[in-house]
Amino acid sequence: MEVRNRQTGCRTGKDENMEEVVGRLMHFSARLNRQVADSQSAEIVAMARIIADAFERGRKLLICGNGGSASDAQHLATELTIRYRSSVNRKALPAIALCADTSALTAGANDLGYDRVFARLVEAYGVAGDVVLGISTSGNSMNVYNALERGRELGLHTLALLGGDGGAVKEVSDLSVTVPYSGAADRVQECHIVVGHVIVDCIERMLGYYGETPLSGNTN
Fold it and tell me: Containing H/E element for 177?
């Protein structure tokens, strides 16, 4: 009996055509990106505007997430503090990945519980008018939920990149972008980093910085 992979639709096992697997996975990921672009562009622009306005007022962006989403948090913070695209010369923008300090994470997890660690760091660094961006592929990461909830209490804007139906984190988000997929974290994470890059691009444009875009650059 032929068995097929539920996600790719391809035959499983040693007889799988790996080039077919690659094509199906990448096309599926592209369709998710297109779906988010078609249905949530307004939310993406609004999120970028909130962050850009915060930067213009001398405020900062705090970002948190777990696992691959922690990597995305650090990735996006670095795009803002160091550089996003070499064709754009601008000042550094204040963004902090709350998941990057292993001493704080381990102390918080040990002393307060892991569900509270990001909330504690929001309390330490956040001031009214700052922005906290939570990233959760399930939408149900309690430490991300608690970080945004604490941010609201302190007067921060709360934004989120989520997956599935948005989960609990959506409830404490002023604005969110939700990737409509819950089969696994991988496809959601791929879309999250694309959305994150687009947000950074929009922020730079909103602040008056312009450079070569992927649409005008060399794709060879």
Answer: strand 175-179
